[in-house]
Amino acid sequence: QLTLALEQAGWKVLPPSGGLFLTASPTHNKGDDTLAIAVREKTGVVINSPTWTGIPNTFRFVLSVSKADFQKALK
Questions:
Q1: Burial of 38 (C-beta count, 10 Å sphere; 0-12/13-18/19+)
Q2: DSSP annotation of 15
Q3: Which residues face 4 on adjacent strands?
Q4: Closest by alpha carbon to 20, among 46, 42, 39, 41?
Q5: What's this model's pTM, rounded to 2 decimal places?
Q6: Among 1, 7, 45, 70, whose CB has the most other CB atoms within 10 angstroms?
């Protein structure tokens, strides 16, 4: 579900192979630590910034929220 939501919003998602993480890059603009903070504050989903991943413009979403919180964040 997160892959679909991100792709519809213009992100390039690396295919996951299971686990609690999803790695993606915004294609419309550059992403930085500010974007990670904004996503975390707005949705409650933990997102690691490019500074954390060490890969320019690449974020890591941590899927460790409850199902209800995840569904709310997708909206």
A1: exposed
A2: P
A3: none
A4: 46
A5: 0.82
A6: 45
> Helix (H, G, I), strand (E, B), or coil: what is residue 17?
coil
Residues 6+ apart with CB under 8 A from 22: 2, 3, 6, 13, 14, 16, 60, 61, 63
Mapped onto helix, strand or coil, the DSSP state of residue 62 is strand
Q: Are 73 and 40 in contact (CB under 8 A)?
A: no
Please, are residues 51 and 42 in contact by the beta-carbon 8 Å criterion? no
Query: Could you write out the three-class secondary structure of 19-46?
Result: CCEEEEEECCCCCCHHHHHHHHHHHCCE
